[in-house]
Model the fold of this input.
Amino acid sequence: MLLWWVSFLDGWLLLDGHDRAAAALAEGAPPPCVELVRVPDEADWRATAEQITEAHEEVLARLARHPASPHTARQRQAMERGYADVISTLPYDAEGTPMYAQERTPDA
Done:
């Protein structure tokens, strides 16, 4: 499921996965969810994410120079998990959902 917190509704908006959510709830299981969020300062967030990604790619390149083995495959998996964990800890914006007024034209 793809969820988005909408502050002025004080609740979640289900963007995708309606049928999967209904099926999981009918079976008494919590549905797996992904939350769509905004980042606080796009430029700073992207710069930090790029630095982390570059460092991660350098380590993976060094690991790729080693002969392939089950040990290097496990190391690569651990590196990928670690990268995902670090990227997921970057700060996200918890401010209110932006609302934009739409100008209405009188019906002619």
